[in-house]
Each structure stands twice: as C-alpha cells, then as structure tokens.
Amino acid sequence: MTASYRARLLAVGPLPARILIVSDAWEPQVNGVVRTLQTISHELRAMGHTVLVIGPDRFRTVPCPTYPDIRLSLFPARQLGRMIEGFAPDALHIATEGPLGLAARRWALRRGCAFTTAFHTRFPEYVHARTGLPPAWFYRFLRWFHGAGQGMMVATASLRHDLAARGFQHLRGWTRGVDLGLFQPPRAQDWADLPGPHFLYVGRVAVEKNIRAFLDLDLPGSKIVVGDGPQLAELRRAYPAAYFTGPRYGAALARAYASADVFVFPSLTDTFGLVILEALATGTPVAAYPVTGPLDVLADAAGPIGAMDQDLRQAALAALQADRQACRAHAERFSWRACAEMFLSHLVPLGGH
Known about the structure:
This protein is α/β, with parallel strands linked by helices. The chain has helices spanning 3-9, 32-46, 77-87, 99-110, 123-131, 135-147, 157-165, 211-215, 232-238, 250-259, 274-281, 294-297, 312-319, 324-331, 336-346, and strands spanning 18-22, 50-54, 61-64, 67-73, 91-94, 116-119, 152-154, 171-173, 198-202, 222-226, 243-246, 262-265, 286-288, 306-308.
C-alpha cells in the first residue's frame, strides 16, 4: 500500500483505515485518558475504521510506584513489536509516555515510521506533587518524547500556549466530548438524606487532584467525594464530616452529578477535565480555579454555568446561583463524534511524513 493511498484513507470520509493506539492508560483503569480513548475508538469504529488499542492488559506488569492501581508494562518491546506488525496499521498514535509509549516510539523510529502523540497529563506536576522533584526535569523528557512525532494533540488552547512557551512543537488542537445521553437532567435525589446544599467532587482520589483544597472549604451543607484512589483512606480519616461514596459508574455516576447543587473542581494540573463536561451535561454548575481546563471549558457560555475564582470558596458559593439549563446547553456543544473526527484529521500515514 503506497503512502499516498494511506494518506487518502486517513482523510475523514467513507474509506476505512486501520488505526493503532498504544496507551499505558487503559482498562481496567478509570480516568479521563481511558474514557477518551474508549469513546473515540467506539466513534471511529462506527465511522467504519478498524481500531486496535494496545494497553498494559496484554503484558506482564508491575505496580506503579506511589500509585499501585496503575500497572506498568514490564519489558514490552519485543511483544509489542510483533503486535504492531501483526495488525499492520495505516496510522500509529502513541497516547502516553510510559513503557508502552516508549517501546512504540522506538519501534517506529527504527523503521522510519511516522506517528502522532498526545499530551493527556501534566506528568511533571504530578511527579512534583508526589516527590518534590522539579517539573523542569520531566518537561525535558516530554519534549524529547513528543518531538519525534509528526504532531502532538493538545486538549485546550491555554495548554497549547503553555506548551508552546516551553518549547513544544507541532501542536494540534484536539478537544473532548461528553455522553449527552448518559449525563443529562432532570435532577436526582441521591443526597436527600444529607444537609444541603450538596457540593460534589468526582474523580481520582489522589494528591495531584488537590482534593484537600475542596474538603478544607468552609461551606454550608455537605461535601461529597465520588471516586477511588491512593488517597481515599487517608482523606476518609482526615475528613469524617465529608461523605465518600467510592467509585460510581454509568447511570449511578450520572445520578451523582445530577443530585449535586455544585460540582467543585479543585485541580490545578488537569489538561481538560472531562468531569466538568459531565457535570454540566446533567445541569450541575461548576466551581473551579481559573486554570487550564476550567478556563477553556467554561468560556463563552451563553448563560451563567458556574464560577471561577482564586478563592475556591467564593467560586463554590457563587456557582449556587448558576442557571442549570444554561449548563446543559453549554455541554451540548461538545460532541464525541466531532472529537473523533478531529483526532482522525490529525493522524499521519505510517509510511510517510
């Protein structure tokens, strides 16, 4: 198959392509990276493309230091190479910078193959939060990793500007979507037995999510945390007045959002924040710091859909006055099909640049 024919296949349209995604974040992990890859894979298949995601579930793994719920592939290069060649992809996308991502990058470079990457996670800030090591060390590694590809997909405009200022090149915008059928009004009553108003956090319960900033707030009513992670037991002990549900999925998760008065997003390091869109889709307003993710998602709304403030308490209280119908209307602007089409448009043919 010639490179020109592959290039035609990769155009958005009726012709199918064989798309390979290599990711260190995959099932059974539950996070924004996994949800994004799961959903765009489904959309691309619905468009007629053949998609294979290769994750750690296919390899021998070891637990990630400080985060044992995440498994890291152990010496995957030879087996991964056989899998890539057996699938014979038209396009290769390397989603993460872990052992699988490194092995796929090495495979492609040795064979002169082109590929794309994505910046899903502020890995340098996460490592800094856990170890105190300078983020600059890890940004050097990320520039090296992504610089070998033909394009790095970035979720938001503010993140794109930040990475460009740090010396990253070939940046390509790739927004996110939300399942508007699953996450929708009307309001539910999951927290009817708890004093109101109900302030909700949903996501990984881990130090990099800055959940203490939410739990430390002096707010009326109840604070609710939905999710699992390495900090869950510690926070349960430290904040006995908060309500910790553990993880929720599907319809139960949608009810959790719809039952809240305000969704509080305390993270300072997320690159997008899919949970923001999920909350808005159920009509629940968002309180957040004015940082990458909230700044991008909450901008240009037709009505009041939440509040951003360096004082997170003020943002949470102000968000109580938001318009739940405006929240839903804003979320409807984000389509997973559009997200998948944007992803497809950025892919490059494996055999050519």
